[in-house]
Automatic annotation (TrEMBL):
GO BP annotations listed: regulation of sporulation
Organism ancestry: Bacteria, Bacillati, Bacillota, Bacilli, Bacillales
One term of GO molecular function: protein dimerization activity
Protein name (Swiss-Prot/TrEMBL): Aspartyl-phosphate phosphatase Spo0E family protein
Range of residues in the leader sequence: none
């Protein structure tokens, strides 16, 4: 997955999280699930594109 593709997925997931949290509350199970999925995408980005990694 390219850097741009991953950034798009992160932005989409972030927007989904905001929408769900506004509708259901920050502590709802749906919000927590979306937050965990966003965390995984961010972790993937950090691992792939951190400074010093040859993939950036």
């Amino acid at each position: 997955m390219s850097k741009q593709e991953l950034l798009v997925k992160i932005e989409q997931k972030r927007n989904e999280l905001i929408e769900i949290a506004l509708k259901n509350g920050m502590t709802s199970s749906l919000s927590l699930k979306q937050s965990q999925e966003l965390d995984l995408l961010l972790l993937q980005y950090q691992k792939l594109f951190k400074p010093g990694n040859n993939m950036n």
